[in-house]
Here is the input.
Amino acid sequence: MQKVLVPLLAILGLLFIALAVYYWLTPAGSLPSFMPGHLAGATEHHFKHGLAALLLGLGCWVLAWFSSGSSSLEA
Here is the structure.
């Protein structure tokens, strides 16, 4: 199960970080309508949505890092 979980979390983290950059670079009016934060005609950027996506991405990477370590405890 860990052989599948670690790469999946790493890829998911990368996607969330890419989403954060997309939120920061794209005005709210230009976001696709299915994305949270879409406001028709708005010109501001969604900093908080991007920050949340960045934190989720970093959280996925940290979880992948801790999941990839050895499970045995050495005394």
About this structure: The mean pLDDT is 87. Residues 2-25 form the longest helix (24 residues). The helical segments are 2-25, 47-68. The chain has one domain: 2-68.
